[in-house]
Design brief:
Layout lengths: L5 H17 L3 H9 L16 H7 L3 H13 L19 H5 L7 H9 L14 H7 L3 H14 L2 H6 L9 H7 L3 H10 L14 H6 L2 H4 L6 H10 L16 E5 L14 E5 L4 H9 L4
Antiparallel strand pairs: 1-2
Helix pairs in contact: 1-2, 4-6, 7-8, 7-10, 10-11
């Protein structure tokens, strides 16, 4: 029998593990993990993903739960902060689970063990809660939001609703066109409505620039069509010209810097004076 080096043995084990994961052979995955020093926290890919990471981002929810239970049984063998491991994108296991459609025991087990994961950010500056919003996972967002409110102080809690470069979870919901979730967030956290991202844009300004969000034609009804017709890149009459000031010109901030910067242009939207007006405008999208 040919002698295998340590690297060759590791490569063979990783190949068997990865194949078993892709074939969703849970029993084989668990068997192989039991033979590894770091078990489910074994680094499996060149991107620093653990076995848990791969199971999570491949949406094998039952396997994730089994791996976590295996981890719990062997807990004394692992570093205290083992669940805080980040892959090369900065994602923890909670960032991966945040993209699940439903909340199961896995998320609860992880947060019972490591509530600090709620405040950890990936290389894009996103918390797990922020990522859940970007993927439009309403049920997961509600769960993580409850956990944030349970474990964190007010100051720590609010930090979870912002990306490092200024965008909020409301910006994320609008950019990703998850309008029902955006409306829910705006109602729950009113102060986010007026927050601006790194380009100086509020979430409603982003919404106003998204012509696809409003649609056109008979199926949208009179009110939606009225709003749509007011969204125009053509200048309209101002108050000085004797017209009613029910339109507000929004100048989209310059993208980029220096002479190469480009203005997205001007957009006319119905004048929005109160939170109720903001929510009403947003609410039209999900009727």
């Amino acid at each position: 029998m040919a002698f295998l080096t340590e690297d060759e043995r590791k490569h063979n084990t990783n190949k068997k593990l990865y194949d078993a994961l892709m074939k969703q052979e849970n029993t084989e995955v668990l068997r192989l993990c039991r033979g590894l020093e770091s078990g489910p926290l074994h680094i499996l890919t060149v991107h620093d993903d653990t076995v848990l990471h791969v199971a999570a981002y491949s949406k094998q929810t039952d396997l994730v739960l089994c791996l976590l239970k295996e981890l719990e049984m062997r807990l004394p063998e692992f570093p205290v902060d083992g669940l805080k491991h980040r892959n090369d994108m900065g994602n923890t296991i909670l960032h991966e689970i945040a993209t699940f459609d439903r909340v199961d025991s896995a998320a609860k087990i992880i947060l019972d063990r490591e509530p600090d994961l709620l405040g950890m950010r990936n290389k894009s500056g996103e918390t797990a809660l922020f990522r859940a919003v970007r993927y439009g996972k309403t049920v997961m967002f509600d769960f993580l939001d409850q956990q944030v409110n349970q474990f964190f102080s007010v100051y720590e809690r609010e930090a979870c609703y912002y990306k490092l470069r200024g965008a909020t979870i409301l910006h994320a919901a609008v950019r990703s066109e998850h309008f029902g979730l955006a409306l829910s967030i705006a109602k729950k956290y009113e102060y986010l409505v007026n927050e601006r991202d790194a380009d100086g844009m509020t979430a409603l300004q982003l919404l106003a620039c998204n012509r696809q969000a409003f649609g056109s034609g008979e199926k949208y009804g009179y009110i939606k069509r009225s709003i749509y017709t007011r969204l125009s890149t053509e200048p309209k009459a101002t108050e000085k010209e004797g017209k009613s000031p029910h339109h507000q010109v929004i100048v989209i901030p310059q993208v980029g810097s220096g002479e190469g910067g480009v203005y997205a242009g001007k957009t006319h939207i119905p004048y929005i004076r109160t939170l109720e007006h903001h929510l009403l405008l947003l609410g039209f999208l999900i009727e």
